[in-house]
Amino acid sequence: LRPSADGKELSASVTLKANTAYTAVLYTAASLRGQRLPTPTQIAFTTGADFPAGQVRGRVVFRDGATSPRSTLVGLLNTDLISVIQQILVNPGQATEVLRQTLNAIAITPDETGEFVIPNVPDGTYWPAGAKDTDLDGSLEPTAVPPEPIGFYDRDGDGGATRADSVVVRNGAIVNDIVIVF
């Protein structure tokens, strides 16, 4: 993102696909005087005539009981989380590009309940995952010390992120009760 000369607007050059819903997330920001964005903001827009009707709803749970679920990023990947992590580990400098190619929808948990709604989801198969920017620097760093947490949906209950841990949105349906565990 680039600020305008007067500092009142942000802009970015992007390539958009036809008939696609997008969500832009401004996770953190600070003014030149040190004022901070109090909570992340998300903006939805589409290059199609309408937004897709599908939704994925659920909540995030931190097993440690101490981490707040507020402002956790949740998303729907078009492949399993392990495949995404393996692609990033091979070339960490390509993390942003890997996420651009694999992240199909995103939302933020708005409060302490950890409940989320990912709106505007097209029909398809997705792997729900989450990430928490605990130091609020606007960057997700799972390899930092201490690491920023990554969570996943464990549909089959095996304790691991596998190909089996997917959800399917059909005919614009709402998929409920998805729990992303950290």
Q: In brief, what are we looking at here?
A:
The chain is mainly beta and 182 residues long. It contains 2 helices and 12 strands.
**How many helices does DSSP assign?**
2
> How does CATH name the architecture?
Sandwich
CATH first level: Mainly Beta
Main sheet: strands, sense, barrel: 8 strands, mixed
Beta strands, count: 12
Mean pLDDT: 89
Estimate nothing, just give the exact number of structural domains.
1
Gyration radius, to the nearest Å? 17 Å
At the fold tier of CATH, the topology name is Immunoglobulin-like
Helix content: under 10%
CATH homologous superfamily caption: Carboxypeptidase-like, regulatory domain
Terminus-to-terminus distance: 29 Å
Unreliable runs = none
* Shape estimate: globular
Structural class: mainly beta
Question: What do you see in this structure?
Answer:
- The structure is a single chain.
- The model has no long low-confidence stretch (mean pLDDT 89).
- It is globular, with a radius of gyration of 17 Å.
- The protein starts with a strand and ends with a strand.
- Helix 1 (81-90) runs antiparallel to helix 2.
- Strand 1 and strand 2 (10-11) form a beta hairpin.
- It has helices at residues 81-90, 95-102, and strands at 2-3, 10-11, 21-26, 41-46, 54-61, 73-77, 103-108, 115-121, 124-131, 150-153, 167-169, 174-181.
- The relative contact order is 0.21.
- It has one domain (52-181): Immunoglobulin-like, CATH 2.60.40.1120.
- The longest helix is centred in the middle third of the chain and has 10 residues, at 81-90.
- It contains two helices and twelve strands, in the order E-E-E-E-E-E-H-H-E-E-E-E-E-E.
- The protein is mainly beta.
- The strands form three sheets. Strands 5, 6, 7, 8, 9, 10, 11 and 12 form an eight-stranded mixed beta sheet that branches.
